[in-house]
Amino acid sequence: MIRFYNRQTKSISGCILLGRRHNSSEPRRESEILDTTKRISKIMVSSPAVVLNTALDQCGMRVSPEIVEDVLKRFENAGILAYRFFKWAEKQRNYEHSIRAYHTMIESLAKTRQYQIMWDLVNAMRNKRMLNVETFCIMMRKYARAQKVEEAVYTFNVMEKYDVQPNLAALNGLLSALCKSKNVRNAQEIFDSMKDRFIPDSKTYSILLEGWGKDPNLPKAREIFREMIDVGCNPDIVTYGIMVDILCKAGRVDEALGIVKGMDYRVCQPTSFIYSVLVHTYGVENRIEDAVDTFMEMVRNGIHADAALYNALIGAFCKANKFKNVYRVLDEMDSKSVKPNSRTCNIVLNGLIGRGKTDEAFKVFRRMIKVCEPDADTYTMMIKMFCERGELEMAFKVWKYMKLKQFIPSMHTFSVLINGLCDKGNVTEACVLLEEMLEKGIQPSNVTFERLRRLLLKEGREDVIKFLQEKMNLLVKEPLFD
């Protein structure tokens, strides 16, 4: 157990500390799957593309749907590398890809904008009669996230061509994809043109409500909320949560609190999410006492705090520069068997780094990685911190630990370290990293590549620029549609 505060402290909620967690032994099958997944991941990380298939063949390991799904999930940030494994796996005896494996692969390819290969997989799924609504919802989400609105709408419209009947779930998927990518006006137009074809439900209205909240457009959000009630579609707890969130982000936390108090508790009782929104907003507004009071009210109402709510309270204390209280909350999470997540870690690290407490941030990082798995943001944050301090050796220590954990860095993680090397004039090592990035099927941002290109030109190394450019060209070009 990791303790963050040495002295005897009272828990934030004033409750008696509960007993320690008990570690349950994993079933043997799960252990075998995990072991095989790790061995395959190690081969994939260490083997060049040209010998990957041979290395996998020689390992002598048999794959199952669970193993393939786990490996693909681990390499979701490296579309092409994941695809090489995917193609190798489908050739193995007595093995067939599951729908989940196809979906994970489609997400991975779309993330790295390998759209042609993505559609090839869709066609393969059609031939095997494996396509469903979720397949198209995944593609719509990824297209919308890349701001490819026309392609997202096209994906919805082409469903029937692929023998999948569009329904309300598909429409909700399209609207959600557009709203989450800040294209709520397009979503509203589509909704207005299709609400006679598909009868909207509370989820449909909640999606649009959230979209206008993110726009942000409070009057339009109110209009959607009123329309929902006028057509006889009762708001559910999700709708209330979204409305509270919108009001809080608009700086109307007291009005949001009025909605919470006006809810019919027999139908909808406030959830930990609603309380977390209120606590977070009070924290942003430096109303730390209100944040704690709201937390205490939730406890009195018998609602158990989850990681998201604790994260909101931790964020409030970070904003107020009360890091002793932060560590008390972390200790309470441990006593209540609420496991911190990567978001917990990131909030604390961001708060410490923002206050210039970088040494303490590194100590917290080393402690937190023992109780929760870091994500791409965690690694990026730490690597960036050391790069900005000019401590590239420490940045590479974090990098090596990340690779030891077989975590595939994101485009942003690569970019931070490449830029750190460029700042120090270490162009050669920056080129090595960029080549590794391309090898994993991750395309660098224009800003990162252009910066490295200018430094190479300055050193008269046009041959290296040509080599890297050819590597980039090897990545499959993205088509408009299939």
UniProtKB/TrEMBL annotation:
PPR repeats: 132-166, 167-197, 201-235, 236-270, 271-305, 306-340, 341-371, 375-409, 410-444
InterPro entries, per the entry: PPR_rpt (IPR002885), TPR-like_helical_dom_sf (IPR011990)
Presence of keyword Metal-binding: no
Molecular functions (GO terms): mRNA binding
Membrane spanning residue stretches: none
Entry keywords, A to Z: Repeat
Superkingdom to which the source organism belongs: Eukaryota
Keyword Nucleotide-binding: no
Pfam families: PPR, PPR_1, PPR_2
Annotated SUPFAM superfamilies: TPR-like
PANTHER family the record matches: PENTACOTRIPEPTIDE-REPEAT REGION OF PRORP DOMAIN-CONTAINING PROTEIN (PTHR47938:SF46), RESPIRATORY COMPLEX I CHAPERONE (CIA84), PUTATIVE (AFU_ORTHOLOGUE AFUA_2G06020)-RELATED (PTHR47938)
Family classification: Belongs to the PPR family. P subfamily.
Official protein name in the record: Pentatricopeptide repeat-containing protein
Native source species: Dipteronia sinensis
